Backbone:
């Protein structure tokens, strides 16, 4: 058996009371694989199943990560958080052992989100209009504020981890949903995993080793989520993250040392005060000077957070500054 591996499942493969319909290519996280599955007996709705890695000395760690994610999701009842779906008649109906797969990995069920990811959306359209970006970020920010009030932080906010509950259509409301709570943590406990490009500077420190950067253990997870939202809003408005690099180490160096280019240098329609708010308030390298999630939500709501309806279809839209 390999040191560890993702379960090799294919369409038609049985898992518990379900049969795999689709294996999501993007659902290949460090600790799990995500598939879409339908009830074996027909009828009922499709679900998304998250299946842990198997094999090697870290197998129990992968299993524990599944257990932890289920426990967190059970405590976060909110429209902006992916919903659990019962998959078992056991003591905990939301998780089960996949006895059909070698190694018997644990899996749990979630609602099937059919609108695609925010990452796919912005890759297709490029930078969003200010009111569109504000509407999406406001709803995600409100979700994060709820998560923080419940005593947790997400720790890995990025476009890949924001899905839409239904397909985006003109006249339809945005419904962004946060997924992947595998690296979420209690506010009193720091989690060391996540995506470096969206990671707050207080979580990072440079090393002489050319490999990936070290991650420090002491930081405020709620303020780290605010940083990630600043990176997200910058990406939605500009089309790229403010800190770029070829390797994790070069990205870390940029996060720790560089200042982001003003958004106004690329977007003439973004007010100067909002530009400064993102760079100095959300992306302050000192977390003590960074705004809170509640402050972020109040400001971003002013710039379009009230408008929750999509008015522009997916198309080859060109903005004035792109012509």
Residues:
């Amino acid at each position: 058996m390999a040191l560890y591996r993702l379960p090799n499942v294919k369409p038609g493969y049985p898992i518990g009371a379900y049969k795999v319909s689709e294996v999501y290519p993007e659902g290949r996280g460090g600790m799990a694989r995500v598939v879409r599955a339908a009830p074996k007996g027909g009828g009922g709705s499709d679900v998304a199943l998250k299946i842990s890695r198997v094999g090697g000395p870290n197998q129990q760690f992968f299993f524990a990560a599944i257990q932890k994610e289920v426990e967190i999701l059970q405590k976060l009842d909110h429209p902006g958080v992916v919903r659990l779906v019962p998959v078992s008649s056991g003591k905990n109906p939301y998780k089960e052992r996949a006895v059909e797969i070698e190694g018997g990995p644990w899996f749990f069920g979630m609602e099937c989100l059919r609108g695609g990811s925010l990452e796919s959306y912005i890759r297709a359209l490029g930078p969003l209009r200010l009111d569109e970006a504000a509407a999406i970020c406001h709803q995600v920010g409100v979700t994060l504020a709820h998560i923080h009030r419940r005593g947790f932080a997400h720790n890995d906010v990025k476009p890949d981890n924001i899905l839409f509950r239904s397909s985006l259509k003109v006249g339809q409301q945005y419904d962004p949903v946060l997924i992947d709570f595998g690296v979420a943590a209690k506010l009193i406990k720091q989690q060391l995993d996540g995506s470096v490009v969206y990671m707050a500077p207080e979580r990072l420190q440079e090393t002489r080793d050319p490999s990936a950067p070290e991650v420090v253990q002491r930081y405020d997870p709620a303020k780290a989520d605010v940083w990630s939202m600043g990176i997200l809003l910058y990406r939605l408005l500009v089309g790229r993250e403010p800190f770029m690099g070829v390797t994790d180490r070069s990205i870390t160096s940029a996060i720790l040392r560089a200042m982001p280019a003003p958004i106004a240098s690329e977007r003439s329609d973004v007010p100067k005060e909002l530009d400064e708010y993102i760079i100095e308030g959300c992306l302050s390298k000192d977390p003590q000077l960074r705004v809170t999630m509640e402050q972020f939500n109040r400001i971003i709501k002013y710039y379009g957070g009230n408008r929750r309806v999509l008015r522009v279809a997916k198309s080859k839209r060109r903005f004035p500054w792109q012509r």
